[in-house]
Amino acid sequence: MKFTPSTMKVTQLMTLIGLLCIMPVSTFAAPFVILGAETEDPLDDNEVLDVKTGLIWKRCPAGIFWNGVNCGNQTLVQTHEEALGEAEFRRNQEAPKQWRLPNIKELASLVDTTQFEPAIDSNVFSNTRFFVPGSVFANFWSATPLTQDSSFVYSLSFQDGEVKTTNRSELGFTRLVRSQ
Fold first, then answer.
1. What is the C-alpha to C-alpha distance for residues 1 and 79, in angstroms, rounded to an integer?
2. SS3 178
3. Does the domain spanning 29-179 belong to CATH 3.10.100?
4. How high is the pLDDT of residue 86?
5. 177, 100 contact by CB (below 8 A)
6. Does this model's pTM top 0.85?
7. pLDDT for 19
8. At residue 22, does pLDDT exceed 80?
9. What is the Cα–Cα distance from 122 to 51, expressed in whole angstroms?
């Protein structure tokens, strides 16, 4: 029998919920390997490998760079079109690395449900923003369009880890990804 909430008995469901509550917190967080950390240059460790997905991420959002300690304080906000341009620029500057915007599933894989404001491992991805200072909340762009309306794409708020839909003309943050 396939267990779904609608077919489980209350006692079975309560047992399952109880097991989830006693699982170690680290089970939910993705393990990361900082690339370049073995070199003597602290600026080399600006990329991380997500061991769970096999994807390589920029540690810092677009517009700022790893300084050897963190991502600094300034973050670039961009429209979706500008974010796509940023990915193309990075591909050209850092060839053969094929940087791109992540799809929404890839971006959501960074969410750490044990964290809030930001809902991401801030030891690995320092200074991950979820609002434009002095302004409004902003999300991280994905490459996944909304099928019902092409002027919107899926985005992710690292304030709480929620997937949102955002108009492409709004401002958002960009975190680039590539395959190994």
1. 48
2. strand
3. yes
4. 95
5. yes
6. no
7. 33
8. no
9. 17
Residue with tokens 């850092």: 94
Two structure tokens written together for 165? 């839909």
| Whole-number Å distance between alpha carbons of 118 and 159 | 5
Question: Rounded to the nearest 5°, which phi and psi values hold at 179?
Answer: -85, 165
- DSSP of 108-132, one letter per residue? HTT--TT--SS-S-TTTSTT--SB-
Note whether 141 and 155 are within 8 A (CB): yes
The enclosing H or E element of 83 equals helix 80-93
Rounded to whole angstroms, how far apart are CA atoms 96 and 137?
Answer: 34
Give the closest residue to 34 by CA, choosing from 124, 127, 135: 124
Map residue 145 onto helix, strand or coil: strand
User: Is the pLDDT assigned to residue 168 strictly greater than 70?
Assistant: yes
The Cα–Cα gap between 52 and 96 comes to 23
DSSP-derived secondary structure letter, 5: T
**In this predicted model, what pLDDT tens digit does every residue of 24-70 receive, in sequence order?**
333 445 589 888 765 555 445 689 999 999 999 999 998 888 888 88
- The distance in angstroms from the start CA to the end CA of the chain is 39
